[in-house]
Amino acid sequence: MSLFLSTYVNKVDKKGRVSVPSLFRAALETQKFQGIVVFRSYKHPALEAFGLDRMAQLSQSLDKNFNLFSDTQDDLAASIFADAQQLGFDGEGRITLPDDIAAHAGITESACFVGRGATFQIWAPDTFKQHQTAARARVQQGNVSIALHASEVGQ
Amino acid sequence: MSLFLSTYVNKVDKKGRVSVPSLFRAALETQKFQGIVVFRSYKHPALEAFGLDRMAQLSQSLDKNFNLFSDTQDDLAASIFADAQQLGFDGEGRITLPDDIAAHAGITESACFVGRGATFQIWAPDTFKQHQTAARARVQQGNVSIALHASEVGQ
DNA sequence: CCATAAAATCCCATGCTATCCCAATTTAGA
DNA sequence: TCTAAATTGGGATAGCATGGGATTTTATGG
């Protein structure tokens, strides 16, 4: 199973190409389609991304459990498929970000790849910095981290 | 399962490399990825660390319901997965601490590896000494339950 | 159906950085 | 004290990100 960790900032060249971090590529190397799937995030000025096999998995999960999602979430999830783009790697492990997708995240001359475990996101570097600082503050204030460790890892 | 005990202080060279204590490495030698995962602690000027297996486990457990819409998961992901770094061992069992990570712990010319059972921490030696003294004082004052709770959680 | 232009893809070259490899030194154990 | 293991240091190497050109594919108009 793929695991995406850490944050990388890479440059976008004139052609709109960006290197996907090598460790992210390594996490996807067992897949048939050598590339990623991206779509615009609903909650953030950012892009959601993962491998194609996970997209298939998401489709299956929606088929079987659509009643578990609320109507709104169902609509959101369904529109993911319409918005999603398959971006293949070139020989050097780069993808080419389509203009409209890049615009949604405000990405211009560099892109920030953010690991989220099973998935990752792509942000404009400055925007993500702000978001991360705020998120970190929220986690510090609430006792979220304790619940997390205790329930899952604290054996 | 890996068990990290005792405290070791090792030097950081000009390239930012530190030897991970051999007993800590031994505790991880059954894992595929020969190295560790580190991220900045929320509560302390220190780094949390453990093997990649444990991080994969954490990712899986958070990922069970494809939760693209949870605010809490969002913050956790941004704080833990985005912040985490995979640091592989070199031939001599060293890791290279990235500058920003090292800065959070105030680590400059030497690093203190502190065993915490299933996980361990990395501190600046002086900072840890102070922290340990303060913790001891709290125990003497009778604030034992808090100290115990914190240690159990791995913060 | 063909010709041309535009765009996306592929291919190779470069600089930088992280990693590897080997040697020296220190520490721990017998 | 002697020996083996662990830590420390530095030069060499390989991998990655990046840039630019060449080639193929796709769209457009005749």
Key terms:
alpha+beta, two-stranded antiparallel sheet, DNA-binding, 155 residues, homodimer, 8 strands, 23% strand, Chemotaxis protein chec, globular, disordered C terminus, 6-stranded antiparallel β-sheet, 44% helix
Describe this protein's structure.
The structure is a homodimer of 155-residue chains. By secondary structure, chain A is of the alpha+beta class. Chain A has a single domain, classed as Chemotaxis protein chec, CATH 3.40.1550. Helices cover 44% and strands 23% of the residues of chain A. The first copy, chain A, contains six helices and eight strands; from the N terminus they run E-E-H-E-E-H-H-E-E-H-E-E-H-H. In chain A, the strands form two sheets. A six-stranded antiparallel beta sheet of chain A has the order 1-7-8-4-3-5. Chain A has a two-stranded antiparallel sheet with strand order 2-6. In chain A, a hairpin with a 6-residue loop joins strand 3 and strand 4. Chain A is globular. Chain A starts with 6 loop residues before the first strand and ends with a helix. At the A-B interface, helix 3, helix 5 and helix 6 of A face helix 2, helix 3 and helix 6 of B. The first copy, chain A, binds a DNA duplex (30 and 30 nucleotides) through strand 2.
